[in-house]
Amino acid sequence: MSIELITIVMFGSLIILLLAGLPVAFATGSLAVIFIVLLWSPDALGTLAIRIWGQMYQYLLFAIPLFIFLASMMQQAGIVEEMYETIREWTGPLRGGLAIATVLASTLLAAIVGIIGAAVVTMGLIALPSMLEHKYDKKLAMGSVMAGGTLGILIPPSILFLLYALVAGQSAGKLFAGGIFPGIALSIIYSVYILVRCYINPELGPGLSKEERALITWKVKFTHLLRISFPVALVILVLGSIFLGIASITEAAGVGACGA
Q1: What predicted TM-score, i.e. pTM, was given to this entire model?
Q2: How far is Cα 36 from Cα 15, in angstroms, rounded to an integer?
Q3: Maximum distance among all alpha carbons in the chain?
Q4: Do 47 and 123 share a structural domain?
Q5: 224, 238 Cβ separation under 8 angstroms
Q6: What is the pLDDT of residues 7-21, one digit of tens each?
């Protein structure tokens, strides 16, 4: 059997198992075992166990569950909703302000979560209903959620960067440093695009009404801004300790998990 045919069969089987509702871990694990037995022999399963056991000793891998725990704690505490509402209060009066708030909140969420799926699902549940309620164009609303969600690939602590660093033998810290500025730049570009587009065509994303703006006083804005200052400071502390060389990625992840 050629390598091309093996690849097609493996990916086809993976898609079928995922569509059947099987968890990713069980789908990939079961396919690995099946194809090892079919292509080599059952004796090769011993090598598989040794390889898995060896990978468990990778020190950098400990950072992944710690960063996921940090993100989970902040999500369960309602920090993500507070971040979106706070940013919405500042950008809401602008045309396209809710979509801009979605992108900016997704940027902060990317610095907490580190993966795409969680950011897209979370912002889809929080921001999308608000935009549709305010008569935003569906394409613009969905686009801001999807575009903002993809920033989790670039902005640290990107889980994909950690996995790539392990596989390719590269420095995870350098990957983090190389990804943060493009991620922030994309966030700014998305926001400017939304602003310009909505000022050219106001029907795409109207600003908040006068009644809604009247309820958002300066006192409310600054009070809510202070409310999210601690989680934002925690993220800055974790990433800053990595970039300044004060702590390794795993150590910084541990500090972040304890702080959460």
Answers
A1: 0.78
A2: 19
A3: 72
A4: no
A5: no
A6: 888 889 889 988 988
